[in-house]
Design a protein that fits this description.
single chain, mainly alpha, globular
Length: about 80
């Protein structure tokens, strides 16, 4: 599990719904101390991921533009760039 939550504000092009959900999942797993879900945790985790993703999308829409892009690309973009 990553130690740092991905920065999505200021990406060009803007963060996708998949990137927002991946960051939300990363946050929920970190806060919950989970590396994977089990039948006992899957419902609570998925509900939390939806809530965090919704809040993240709202936040990104309401914040002003950044002057500089984030220092690193989100993991989904890095994987897409290195895919054959």
């Amino acid at each position: 599990m990553c130690r740092n939550i991905t920065i999505l504000r200021g990406l060009e092009p803007a963060a996708t719904l998949d990137e927002v959900e991946a960051a939300a999942r990363q946050y929920v797993r970190k806060v919950g101390g989970l590396q994977s879900t089990s039948p006992a945790t899957v419902e609570a985790v998925e509900r939390a991921v939806r809530a965090v993703a919704d809040a993240t999308a709202t936040l990104l829409a309401e914040l002003p533009a950044r002057r500089r892009p984030p220092p690193t690309e989100p993991p989904l973009r890095r994987r897409a760039a290195t895919a054959p």
